[in-house]
Design goal:
Two copies of one chain form a homodimer. Chain A is of the alpha+beta class. In chain A, about 45% of the residues lie in helices and about 10% in strands. Chains A and B meet through helix 1, helix 2 and helix 5 of A and helix 1, helix 2 and helix 5 of B. Chain B binds a DNA duplex through helix 4.
DNA sequence: GCTCTATATTGACATATCTCGAATCAGAGT
DNA sequence: ACTCTGATTCGAGATATGTCAATATAGAGC
């Protein structure tokens, strides 16, 4: 199992620089920028369907061919998978002919943390 | 005049038509479309800062003047608040001279549900 | 080497989004 | 009535994003 960039490669891992609960305190500009990258990655119906298809697939992973049936061209699917990977939401790995994707649960959890109620102030 | 609607007014309330956990099953096209509207609303750093400023403000509410200090013009702030309101994330109410915004916790909770691990399948 | 299949990248175009200044609306108080 | 202030809407320009067809890359197998 080698890696085809097991890790994302931009300034990704936005996770590490954001993610306190929204109601804990006003987000800093940097935190907001990092968090926005994550939410932007989920702000497209095709990407949500790809992510959901992978997350719900057997063993939590799927090759591109398993999830390509979303109504757009193959390059477009590839483009969206790349965006999800660059956001840190997906991890990819080549095994022989196929490339398998799976969800990075840490990133998903970080996003959930932002949305969590934290300590209600009222 | 459509009034400063306390309730959103598009086909909003996307909440009602989406939101199963991502890993439960592949999202339908309609569910993905509805959920994407929600995530798109959070996919901007200014909107995240506005939402966070409101959520963390005293009593969980704030007037525009309380949160306008995010580095963009006042019309731009208004535009972003409107987008958050149309997504169902904010509720607005005029009281005298000021208009107060507060977070709709149900919408936030629905988004959190999508991200939740649900039943891990592997 | 060659070919076949699976996936990624490039380049171009159309649409969506963010932003601003200017204008407008709404309520409070004189 | 007028004016002042808080907030929204309008119109336009710049940038970002989604999409495709064409091309390229990578591995398997002959």
């Amino acid at each position: 199992m080698r890696a085809l960039s097991t890790t994302p490669f931009v300034d990704e891992r936005a996770v590490e620089s954001c993610c306190p609960p929204l109601s804990e305190r006003p987000l800093s500009s940097e935190e907001a920028e990092a968090a926005a990258q994550l939410f932007k990655a989920l702000g497209d119906p095709i990407r949500l369907r790809l992510l959901s298809a992978i997350a719900s697939h057997k063993d939590g992973e799927a090759c591109v061919c398993d999830v390509s049936d979303v109504g757009v061209s193959q390059p477009t699917v590839s483009h969206h998978l790349r965006r999800l990977r660059e956001a840190g939401l997906l991890i990819s790995e080549r095994r022989g002919t196929w490339i398998y994707y799976r969800v990075d649960p840490a990133t998903l959890a970080a996003m959930g943390r932002i949305l969590s109620a934290a300590s209600a102030k009222a």
